[in-house]
Design a protein that fits this description.
Layout lengths: L7 E6 L6 E5 L2 H10 L2 E4 L4 E4 L6 H17 L3 E4 L15 H14 L3 H12 L5 H17 L6 H33 L49
Parallel strand pairs: 1-5
Antiparallel strand pairs: 1-2, 2-4, 3-4
Length: 234
């Protein structure tokens, strides 16, 4: 069975820099690492994670041990320094982001414009929709930076307010308009007809169990040319 490399990670202290580094894994693993406290490092030719600056060695060890347990709890293979090895398997709970991503699954299964409009309502509802909450969160983060104390913090706060005003509100407005158009349309999706499991009266095949058209047949891949064959140039 081929090794799926994105299910394997290394969490070790680098022998040259003495930094605590985590390498490997897929997007889900990277989310787990960041929830454990690691910081993402994105380079031109590689991505990895490191411990936050200013931690003591014991704090870094606790961070790494927690990450190893979390990753192994959901099926990742983690090679690590002996000090970070653990039998702990913390419980994994659905994240807020996963709940929002469920909206995409509902859209993939939507069979008419009303269902799609219902999904967009969850994004665009003015009081408690996802985008309203996102805009409020950016505002709260801006307030946090206002009083943080560094010279660059007021600039960061202003940048966050600009993102909320110039981008989130535009996305919110555009999607809300899209939602209203879908709500007024009252049309089934032609490619997503719900299966009634009913055989029409005119069906001639006695073995038919529903009216759904057969799935499209995949064309077979062309056979490779024989060894030594000369390709024709066009």
């Amino acid at each position: 069975m081929p090794r799926t490399t994105d299910r394997f990670l290394d969490i070790r202290r680098d022998p040259h820099s003495d930094e605590l580094l985590a390498r490997g894994g897929d997007a889900e693993a990277h989310s787990i690492l960041q929830r454990a406290g690691f910081v993402a490092v994105v380079r031109l030719h590689e991505n990895y994670h490191r411990a936050p600056a200013g931690l003591t060695e014991d704090e870094e060890s606790r961070l790494a041990t927690d990450a190893v347990g979390r990753l192994r709890a959901v099926g990742y293979h983690v090679d690590c320094d002996e000090r970070f090895d653990t039998e702990a398997r913390p419980a994994a709970y659905p994240t807020l982001g996963a709940s929002v991503s469920h909206l995409a699954e509902r859209l993939r299964e939507a069979t008419d414009t009303a269902e799609a409009a219902d999904v967009l309502t969850e994004l665009t509802a003015p009081h408690d929709g996802v985008l309203a909450g996102f805009e409020e969160t950016l505002g709260a983060l801006a307030q946090f930076f206002d009083g943080l104390g560094d010279a660059s913090d007021p600039y960061t706060a202003g940048r966050l307010r600009y993102l909320a005003d110039a981008y989130v509100r535009i996305i919110h407005s555009d999607l809300a308009h899209t939602r209203e158009r879908l709500a007024d349309r009252h049309a089934p999706h032609p490619g997503r007809r719900a299966c009634t499991e009913q055989v029409p009266d005119h069906e001639t095949e006695r073995s038919a169990v529903c009216a759904c058209p057969p799935p499209p047949r995949a064309l077979p891949a062309p056979a490779p040319p024989p060894v030594g064959a000369t390709r024709l140039r066009r």
